[in-house]
Write a structure and sequence with these properties.
Blueprint (H helix, E strand, L loop, with lengths): L1 E6 L5 H13 L6 E7 L16 E4 L6 H18 L3 E5 H17 L5 E5 L11 H14 L5 E4 L2 H10 L6 E3 L21 E6 L8 H11 L4 E6 L15 E5 L3 H10 L2 E4 L9 H7 L4 E4 L4 H4 L6 E4 L4 H9 L3 H6 L1 H11 L2 H11 L1
Parallel strand pairs: 1-2, 1-4, 2-3, 4-5, 5-6, 6-7, 8-9, 8-11, 9-10, 11-12, 12-13
Helix pairs in contact: 1-13, 2-3, 6-10
Amino acid sequence: MKILHAAETIKGGVATVMQQHLERQSKGEDCNCIYLIPDSQVEDIKHPYPNKKNMRTFKHSGRGVLSSINFLYVFVKLLFLEKPNVVHLHSSFAGFWGRVVLLLAKCIGSNIKVIYCPHAFSFLMDTSEWKKVIYFKIEKILALATNTIICVSRFEYEAAIKGGLPKHKMIVVYNGVEDGSDLASYQGNEHEAIKILWVGRLDYQKGFDLFVDAINRLGNHDLDITVIGDYVYDEFKVGNLSGINMIGWVDREEVRSWYSKADVLVMASRWEGFAMTPLEAMSFGLPVISSDCTSCPEMIIDDETGFLFKTESVDSLVELLKGLNKSKLASMRPKTIAHFQANFTQNKMTDQTFELY
């Protein structure tokens, strides 16, 4: 079986998911993987992946006409030269252009099986209603060229069905990450301040402005706050970060060490597909405070593996932070690991997807 993975951008969670699939699918001789990614993001696929020679790239200069043409040229070339049995399209951009091409190919008798994972449908974003209507109509048309749509959450699945996407073509496969429980050794001290951790982009979707507002309202509460990550849009920058330890982007191993040192992770997102960061944190036993947006209640059992607050409600986030108890957070760690292992492991995700192929 020959599988072609294609993505227009792989920054963040898409790179993690693609990496995991490539590792799983390269283990046996029954599968040959080719992957098409932007030339500027080659380093986001971390090797060892044994078939680096199967990597194909296209010239990527941002989301524009030239990048679209470059993607289409290489994608069509691979379809003719490699003749894949399965094409797995990642995210909405590759999902759009790839399925336009494959819809035309289907019209002339192609039997390529098409798997599409939006990693969060465009129509679920916090955007204008007319844009959501357009995005949905596009998804309905391109579903004609799709054998299976992988939804990364039950929320996404139900929203798609409600809007009229074909139920028989959709399946839920939760994102998964590597199990970190073997490395999960809590390094906290009950006499120290509660250590709050933020990991990820500092942008509107992730609700970093809401998080900073909550911290500023707390005043002199006994909290030790660390932020790993950085801004992606200069115009979004928020002020008054006093009292917050801003350390920028760090490598994966250092992030893992922070999961063991922290008492709780905070995620204030306005919307999500199925975020990888809270899964990584939970794999180390770290409880998660999260907004109740979109798929987040599917990850977190309120008051057992973390806490949920009303999306965009700074008041409810402040109340949660005020009421944190270090002993309770420590007692939640075993339940958090067990919940992760039952639902969100890398092996579970990749095995389900391979079975689908």
